[in-house]
Amino acid sequence: MSLSALKTFKNPRAKYNFEGRSCSITGVGSYVPARVVTNADLEKMVDTTDEWITSRTGIRARRVAASDEYTSDLAAHAATRAMQKAGVKPEEIDLIILATITPDMPFPATACIVQQKIGAYRAAAFDIEAACSGFIFGLEIGQQFIMSRTYNTVLVIGAEKLSSIVNWTDRNTCVLFGDGAGAAILQNRPESHGLLTACMGSDGQKADLLSMPGGGSRCPASTQSVAAGLHFLRMDGKETFKNAVQAMHNAAKEVLRRCELDITQIKCIIPHQANLRIINAVSERLGATPEQVFINLDRYGNTSAASVAIALDEAVEGGKIVRGDLVLLVVFGAGLTWGAAVIEW
Ligand code: UT7
Fold first, then answer.
1. Mean pLDDT of 172-178
2. Do 94 and 122 touch, CB atoms closer than 8 A?
């Protein structure tokens, strides 16, 4: 349903445009590394089959960055594309928020490295860590700065080189993940609505379901930690799956409720691309039709913080979202964390 059609019977979203100020996404961009690793390639590496991976996850291929290509490189490419589409110059950016669980290094922030790479010298820059939910957390943080009049132009990036923390001998996890980056420029555009609302949630009681135990202050890198495989991502897949369906459904319902919208009014649903069975279960519970749901995990697998950002860019580029459309983003990840957002494009 278009904006004009909605306005004819009610416009609850007027409340998201405060005193002529709103937070619009004026450009999105994404980047994935060139190297494609197919399920057939993985059959040669671990005891798995294309049939198992496709039927259990929906994933057919993923991208893997080169050894000299880092999260900051993927992020800088995506950011440059988003800036071009928004018509924004690097020096106009006030703030860079980069969501990742695979920073170039523990510090400095990868956002600062990206700042240098894209030449956004005026910007403040920091990383956030909310795993696969990071991009929506970044959107909500960026929105707060814009609505509070602190900043006018915010660059939000989700970027991951998950291949650097995946155990390529563990069939339970290595088939699931991929590398990539997506970025969005947030700006005050008083004449439009933009990001209507976003919600975030966390449950630290379930932190152990999905984690990388090594490399932090609890377990610094040592020969023992490396030998024990503590620097690889670990996941309790079944429990994570159950929590993902529940949390994504609840988050989506919450943002729809806040905007007084029905699922039928949403043109495009962009869920976190972790597993097709999760996406289908959430979509069914929401009462969405398959036509509403955007899926690209068959080509990229789970790219964590980059996932919905890449999908958003591809949905816009592919003409699935046009100006005035209502878009629902919904995510879930380690922490546990979850979130959802409604955007009027
Ligand atoms: O992005 C953050 C959120 N992440 C997620 O939401 C991921 C959530 N979890 C999942 O997507 C699914 O749980 C998985 C895809 C990870 C696993 O699917 P599952 O249906 O839960 O399978 P399972 O872990 O119960 O494993 C079933 C069987 C096991 O064999 P046994 O014990 O039944 O003999 C596994 O060892 O499948 C086996 N298996 C595999 N077989 C072939 C696990 N991985 C593979 C594999 N190839 N790659």
1. 97
2. yes
- The DSSP H or E segment spanning 248 is helix 237-258
Burial of residue 46 (CB within 10 Å: 0-12, 13-18, 19+) is middle
Tokens of 54: 């496709």
State residue 10's pLDDT score. Answer: 45
Q: Which domains does the chain have, with CATH numbers?
A: 16-191 (3.40.47.10), 196-344 (3.40.47.10)
Atom of ligand 1 nearest to the CA of 334: 2
Q: How confident is the model at residue 34 (pLDDT cuts 50, 70, 90)?
A: very high
Q: pLDDT digits over 157-166, tens only?
A: 999 999 999 9
Q: Is the CB of 237 under 6 A from ligand 1?
A: yes
Ligand 1 centre to CA of 53 (Å) is 9
Catalytic residue, chosen from 243, 272, 275, 296, is 272
CB 248 within 8 A of CB 289: no
The predicted model scores a pTM of 0.95
**How far is the centre of ligand 1, averaged over its atoms, from the C-alpha of 297 (Å)?**
16
Per the listing, tokens 């922490």 go with 335
Task: Compute the distance between CA of residue 142 and CA of residue 134 in angstroms, rounded to an integer.
Answer: 12
Question: Distance (Å, rounded) from C-alpha 224 to C-alpha 229?
Answer: 9
Kindly give, in sequence order, each residue whose CB lies less than 8 Å from that of residue 19, ignoring residues fewer than 6 positions away.
none
Would the CB of 175 count as within 6 Å of ligand 1? yes
CA distances from 66 to 33, 70, 316 (A): 8, 8, 27
Identity of residue 104:
D
- 132 flagged as catalytic: yes
pLDDT band at 243 (very low <50, low <70, confident <90, very high): very high
The pLDDT-based confidence of 1 (bands split at 50, 70, 90) is very low
